[in-house]
Design a protein that fits this description.
alpha+beta; TIM Barrel; 14-stranded mixed sheet; 15% helix; disordered C terminus; binds zinc ion
Length: 397
């Protein structure tokens, strides 16, 4: 397996503009955990017929997920009879489970039907990067009943996948930009137009590909882009239990939690609003970090839990830095504050001071470890990212 040199344990991204803050803009958020990247049988032919929406919903509820998005491959939706995962005719329709997910949702659990546009590299060899683009539904679900264009092999770019998603009202996420295999690596034919970047994909937990994706996200933010970092499991077989195997990530590991204001009903429009605003927390099951401010004293706290000895960092991304997101050369962030943490923690942090001193630099917080356990056993290598309030809105709803 790939070795990673650092582990982000859980990062609460807290990027915000000092100029936009007021003493009343930090309500006591309520967090709802979800999975943005899940494949199902009947629409993704690489699930081996082992993951049906009803079973996915049941497992999600067991694992404490409040919501999830089915993101089946565009290159096999409608052509499940095709044996070769990457060589199917694209028949569509792309969202076959819209009625089923409505049936499986209620006031405490929301499931929606999205897609993972999956253009492929030119055969033979599959050596060219193209990329996979997650596509989240509009408020009321997709009305598009055609088929996304992901063929001919090698002719459909990542930029085309992003455009096709956005054209039908979707919220586009560049998934696993640096997966370690060439044909699903993002081709960076556009660095604009997508609203999310999957900086943490469940395969191999937190790995070097995720590390590079985080660096690419920092680069995009440093360049002034409003791109929300997200995590998704990429689960293909619902029977895989946490912590999973090297190449088979379990549902909900990692997960993206979103923050809603107290009293807000759990609905897809509310979840999508929170995603678009960047109020996200990327984490594994037992690790978390959130930031909050006492309105009386204006004191900022980072609160959370880490089951293993970890380092808590408050990071600032310097705006205006020259960098190339397609080939990031290490992370850009500066560490503004750090502390050792283990178990439940509550840390007073100099967020307010950092904001005043660095008005142009978005902040986020992370829990990191120095190394990942070489074994995939146990719930040990949590990683992640945090809640974001990016400087600008990140895409209309
Ligand atoms: Zn993919
Ligand atoms: Zn996938």
């Amino acid at each position: 397996m790939k070795q990673s040199t650092h582990i982000l344990s859980l990062t609460l991204i807290l990027a915000f503009s000092a100029a936009c803050r007021s003493t009343s803009d930090t309500p006591d958020w309520v967090w709802f955990a979800g999975d943005l990247h899940v494949h199902s049988s009947g629409a993704s032919n690489d699930t081996d017929g082992l993951s049906w929406p009803e079973d996915i919903a049941a497992t999600a509820r067991e694992r404490g997920l409040d919501w999830l998005v089915l993101t089946d491959h565009s290159n096999s939706t409608g052509s499940m009879h095709c044996e070769d995962v990457e060589d199917c005719p694209n028949l569509g329709p792309e969202f076959p489970w819209q009625d089923e997910v409505t049936r499986l949702s209620d006031a405490t659990f929301v499931m929606v039907d999205g897609n993972e546009l999956s253009p492929v590299a030119r055969s033979p060899g599959m050596g060219e990067a193209r990329g996979h683009v997650g596509c989240l539904p509009p408020r009321d679900g997709f009305t598009f009943d055609g088929a996304f264009i992901d063929r001919p092999d090698g002719d459909v770019t990542g930029a085309s996948a992003v455009e096709q998603c956005v054209a039908v009202g979707g919220w586009a996420i560049v998934n696993h930009p640096f997966p370690g295999v060439p044909w699903i690596t993002y081709d960076w034919s556009t660095t604009t137009g997508f609203q999310g970047l999957e900086v943490w994909n469940g395969g191999l937990r937190w790995d070097q590909g995720d590390e590079r994706a985080l660096a690419a996200w920092e680069c995009l933010v440093a360049s002034g882009a409003s791109v929300v970092p997200v995590a998704g499991s990429d689960n293909h077989k619902i029977s895989i239990a946490i912590p999973g195997t090297e190449l088979d990530p379990p549902l909900g590991q990692p997960r993206t939690s979103v923050a809603l204001e107290p009293g807000t009903p759990l609905t897809w429009p509310a979840i999508r609003n929170a995603l678009a605003a960047g109020r996200v927390l990327l984490h594994e099951e037992n690790t978390e970090i959130v930031a909050s401010r006492d309105p009386e004293s204006a004191t900022w706290m980072l609160r959370g839990h880490s089951p293993l000895p970890s380092r808590l960092e408050l990071r600032r991304i310097p705006l205006g830095t020259n960098c190339d997101p397609s080939d990031p050369d290490g992370t850009l962030h500066e560490v503004v504050f750090d502390a050792s943490v283990e178990g439940a923690f509550e840390q007073l942090t100099p967020i307010a001071t950092a904001l005043e001193a660095n008005e142009q630099g978005p902040l986020y917080a992370a829990i990191t470890r120095d190394a990942m356990a070489p074994s995939m056993e146990g719930d040990v290598a949590m990683t992640g990212l945090i809640a974001t309030l990016l400087p600008q809105s990140t895409g209309g709803l």
